[in-house]
Structure formats: structure tokens, C-alpha cells
Amino acid sequence: MPAATMNSVLGPIGPDQLGFTLMHEHVMVAASGLYQAYPDLLGQGPEAKGIEALKKAKAAGIDTIVDCTTFDLGRHAPLLAAVSKGSGVNILNVTGWWLDVPRFMQGVGPNQMAREFVRDLTEGFRGTDIKAAFLKCAADIDGVTRPLEVMARAVARAHRETGVPIMAHSHPATQLARRQIEIFKEEGVDLTRVKIDHCNDTTDTEYLKWILDQGCFVGLDRYPGRITSPAMRTLTLKRLIDMGYGDRLCPSHDCICVAIHNERPDGTMPDTHAYFDHNRDQYLYMHRHVIPMLKEMGTTDAQIRTLFVDNARRFIFGA
User: What is the pTM of this model?
Assistant: First the structure.
């Protein structure tokens, strides 16, 4: 049954409030607790930087972003709330776990973690009334290691209890989603509520077709990216649209607005972080580069609306 509302960092929103949505972004990526303990490492005015970047996004027609920053990626919920309020952009955040499972946590079980994730969804992140909207798990080039399998199963069990959708950080070069989807099937997950992310790190449409044929959504959410050129990423996106899968594709950037500023070898400090140097368009890369290229290849306005409006609503609300 479709959900009537979904948690944003400023409170519940309905399907009609989503608008143009980027389904995999970050306001800040750091280490857990770093924003509170060592904020100067993030450069001057991290909150103001986030607001400025998302004000530009809002002015370009971006209404909502899904912030995929988990606890181990440095999530600071009050920062997200301040940036959302200051920019006018809806921000939906996640609970779950990325790749950094510390040694002292490697004995926890999936039921323990599932209970914690459910609390983030239903009660709020500890010390706040800000609630998560999504569940996230991850694995990468090393495969689904034992600690990451615990987190994947915990996310699956929290999904079964709450019905909340799942996004999975994946590694397409090793076709890792085959194992991740196997785990989800074992746990009884509704695969139509799963999005396999970072899938435009490959041009292998046969593999991507397999994921889509399981019922999952696909996150084509690394732009401009490093492994595959931006042009090939967009060509792969167009091929999947032409194959009939346009209603389950979610393009995005994996943009990081606020991050640690690394000292140069000569001891000076840069004004920007390395992620910014890689994508100076930040959340506007899609509008400035990808959408124009899609239109040049014959993608219609209706198909673009499907990618950025309809698919987000369908995945988030289960409609």
C-alpha cells in the first residue's frame, strides 16, 4: 500500500511535495562525530556552504535531494535540517550503514542493528526529532564481507518491519548486486522497494537489465564520475530508456558539498575540498550537462520528467 507521507529532515512530506528529485546526494561527508568534534577541518562556514549550494539547486528547479549520509559517513542531522530550512530544498536522509564497520562493532547481530535502524525511522536520530526516510546498506570491491552482510540483513529486517525503501551502495564491475539481491531475497524483501546504486560505473547493460528484471530500481548516480566517462554514462542511461526501463531509473550525482579540506604539501590550505574540484557544478551538473545531452539524443521532456519526478515518487512512496 502506498505511503501517504515520508519523513524529511523538517518533518513529513507528501508525494506532491517532492517535485524534481535527485536520489543520491550528500550535503556533508566526514567521519562520525567529526562535525561536532573538529568542525574546522571542514573549512569555513560548512552550514552556509550547504545552504548556498542548495539555494542554487532550488533556483534551477531542484525541489528535493535524498541525502545518503549514514552515521559512519558523518551524518549530522541538525546540519541537514538547517540546510534544508535555509535553502528551501527538501532533504530526505537515510539510516543504515556504509562500509566502515569498526572492529569493536563486528560482533553485533542483524537483529540488534535492525532495532536501531527502526528507531531512527520511527523515533528520530538520538537527541533529535529528525527521522530517517530510507534504509541504506553497502558493499564494494571486497564483496559482501561478514560485517557488511550483518548490516544488509539488518536493513532488510528493518524494511520488513517498516516498509521503508532500501538503497544499496554496490560495485558493478564485480556484479556485486547479484549477491546483495540474493541476501534481500533470503530476507523476504520486496525488491520493487530496492534501488541498486552507482550502476553507471559500468556500461554493461546486460548486467543492468538483470538487476531491473528482478524488480529493482537502478541508481545511475555518479556524475561526472571517474571510472566511466560522463558521455558513456549518459549513453548507457539512454540505452536503458530505449530498452523500456525508463520508469525505474534514477539519475543523480553522488555530490558532496561539505568535506574535509586537505592541507597541501607546502602547508597551505585550499579554499575548496577535493570533491568540489572534481565537480564544480555540484548539484547542477545534471541540468548543465546530462539533460542537454539526453535531449540531443532524442529523449523527450516527458521521459525526463519520468526520470526525475515520477520515478522518485514511485520509489519513495511505493505508488
Answer: 0.97
Residue 283: CATH number of its domain: 3.20.20.140
Structurally, the chain folds into a number of domains equal to 1
**CA-to-CA separations, 19 to 22, 90, 100, 302, in angstroms, rounded:** 10, 10, 33, 14
Cβ atoms of 33 and 42 within 8 Å: the answer is: no
Q: Could you say which DSSP state residue 310 is in?
A: I
Secondary structure of residue 300 in the 3-state scheme: coil
The predicted-structure confidence for 251-267, as pLDDT tens digits, reads as follows 999 999 999 999 999 99
Give every CB contact of residue 277 below 8 A, 6+ residues apart in sequence: none
Which three cell numbers, joined as nine digits, stand for 294?
A: 539526453
1 domain-assigned: no
CB 46 within 8 A of CB 276: no
The three three-digit cell numbers of residue 60, written as one number: 534551477
The secondary structure of 208-222, three-state, reads HHHHHHCCCEEEECC
Q: Residue 28, exposed/middle/buried by CB under 10 A (0-12, 13-18, 19+)?
A: buried
Which of the residues in the chain have pLDDT under 50?
A: none
Dump pLDDT digits (tens) for 105-156: 989 999 999 999 999 999 999 999 999 999 999 999 999 999 999 999 999 9
